[in-house]
User: What shape does this take?
Amino acid sequence: DLDGNERTVIARVRCGRLGVMKTSQLVCIGVAVSSLSLVVGCGGGAEYTFVSRAQPTAFARPHCRAVVEPLRQDGLTVDGVPEAAFLATKKPKQIMTFQRDKRASEAAFVGEIRESQPNVLARGDADDTFVIRPTWTTWEVGGFTAFSHPGTARILVDVLSPEGKVVDRISLEAGTKAYTAADRMKSDFIDLGKGVSRYIAENWSCAAH
Assistant: This one.
C-alpha cells in the first residue's frame, strides 16, 4: 500500500458516488469494481461530534472569517503505535511515499473546506477571524480486501475566537476501503473537510452573511 501504486479503487459501505474519480453518479451499493470508485456518505462527509461547545453567540458577529492552520501531527499514531515507530519499519522509499500522501491529504482537506466555505475563508479583519486548528490523532492504514478494515483517520479540531480562546472542539472520523493507502488517506481527508464545512454551516450564524 506504500509503493506509490496509482490505481484507483475506492469502496465504502454506505451511499456514495460511483464512477471514475472525476466523473461520478449517485449510488447506494456496497461493492467495488477495479478502476471505479464507491465513496461513502452521499457527499455529506464525516460526521462531527462536539467534545466541548461554546455558546452560539460566539459566532453571532456578522461577516466572520476563518483561517485553517497547518494540520498538527505531533501525537499521531499509525496502526496503534507512534508514527516514528511505524516509519522505523519502512524502507526510505516507503517513508517518502507516506510523507507525500500526508501532504496531499492535508491539501485535499483544506481545499474541501475552502471550496465549501469560500466566504468564510476569504481574507478579513483580524478582529472577526476565527482560527480552525486541526490535529491528526490516529491513522489506521487499513486495506482493500473483504477481510481488512477501512483506512481510518481521526482528527480533533479546535476553533479559536479572534481573541485566541478555544470556543469549540469537535472530533471527526472517516473511513475508506481503497486499493492503495494513498487513496484511502486522501478520501478520508476529503470527507473530514466536508465534515468541518458542515459544522461551520450548521453552527456559525455569521457564516450566512
Summary: The first helix runs from residue 83 to 87. The radius of gyration is 18 Å. The chain is about 25% helix and 30% strand. The chain has a mean pLDDT of 81.
